[in-house]
Amino acid sequence: MSEPRLLTQFPPSVRIENLTLLPNGTIVVCNAYTGDLYSINPLSHTIVATASNFSWEEGLVEPGSNVVHHITLTEAGAKIKAFPIPPAAWLNGLTPVPHSPHYLLVADCAAGSLLRLDTRTGCVETVSSDPLFAPISKPESNLLLGINGVHARDGWLYFTNTNQGLYGRLAITPEGLAVGAPAEIIARGLNGSTFDDFALRRDGVAFLATGLGNLNGIEKITARGEGQMLVSWEYGSLAISQPVSAVFGQTIKERSTLYFATAGSYLSSNATSTGGQVFSLKVKC
Hints:
The radius of gyration is 17 Å and the shape is globular. The strands form 7 sheets. The protein has a 4-stranded antiparallel sheet, with no helix packed on it. The protein has no helices and 24 strands. It has a single domain, classed as 6 Propeller (Neuraminidase), CATH 2.120.10. By secondary structure, the chain is mostly beta strands. This is SMP-30/Gluconolactonase/LRE-like region domain-containing protein. InterPro entries: 6-blade_b-propeller_TolB-like (IPR011042), Hetero-Diels-Alderase-like (IPR052998).
């Protein structure tokens, strides 16, 4: 496995929260401070992103501010369709339902619930508020981070819970509803690491960004729950500061390339703060 290769370094004013790859290889990331999207080699395509009026200093989301944005990127500019979700506490992860792509499953990390949005009608309903989705307050942080990253595949909703430090799954129907069985834990973080978003490989192996615990790094977890820290750095490192999201390349040539984004350090808490970053990492295991 190669060392991570830095692709983009943003200024301290940009705190990256998530990234996605378009089929043509374009990387799109969002700024948690402003909700702005940035693209690397931008070309026309459609993506989906979430946004809230969120203050990282206070750890609060303004009531009624949660929105799912459907964004079409064209050469003429971005076309945005907004789906307000007023009851939500803090929207975080998002995934389409594979065989019903008009349904989106959205993680409310502060409320500890999974929502389903119908993009045809704008209707929202709660799929589950399983105990494994719930946030647990931590004395060292004022952020309520329960269910976070989510991916739907093969009848399962795979998810992370940041404050509980776990990776798990919930059985779902082809329409994205819970079948009624409780969620189950696949694995807990190694050495106290906590999970943010993650990439799910075709063979069911997950590669999770671990940037809020004792380690900055990428942790690999098999479908059987076997964990391995692939790469790691000391917490607070400015070289690679707080991985938050990961995704595999879209083309056959790049299926072994893992792209991951880092948040950067907090502006007010570090005199030598750094902005968000985007890296690539060759994974052959």
